[in-house]
Amino acid sequence: MNRSNPRSGQTMLELIAATIVITIALVPALRLTRARIANTEDLERAETRLALCTSKLEEELAYTAANWELNSHRGNFGSIGQAGVWFQVSKSDAIAAGGRPGELATIDVMVWHDQDADATLDADEQRVRLATKIAKLVAYQSEFSDP
Fold it and tell me: How many angstroms separate the CA atoms of 105 and 9, rounded?
């Protein structure tokens, strides 16, 4: 006897309907999850750039206060495991830059993620820029020269 169970056909349809409903709900949820992960990565990179830029600016402030060397330079943060993050430091005591020769200097630091690894800042690469001024004071120089 080969009797077919009418309930098994209904169960199969219910299973197919449930699969379709879950798929319809799951695809947008996965798309949203991917977008959130990408946004989280972007936010983490922005926080890294800001922290490194702040650190480099403070380092340059201390060095300039002690030595009054206004050399501009660039490099990356490979020594701390961030080889893909580059910096550029510009220092000047020129009036055109907002300084006063021998008395007041500007320090400008830019940090960026070098996405194409060409060691240059491209228009589409995300960056952070911080700038400040520092006065040349004997007190700063003696503070750093005393052992």
Answer: 83
The pTM score is 0.72
* CA-to-CA separations, 22 to 15, 44, 115, in angstroms, rounded: 11, 32, 38
Q: Which amino acid is located at 69 in the chain?
A: E
Cβ contact 128:109 at 8 Å: no
Angle of helix 6-67 relative to helix 138-145, nearest 10 degrees, comes to: 100
Find the radius of gyration of the CA atoms of the chain.
29
User: Can you tell me the distance from the alpha carbon of 61 to that of 55, in angstroms, rounded to the nearest whole number?
Assistant: 10
Maximum mean pLDDT: which of 11-15, 79-83, 135-139? 79-83
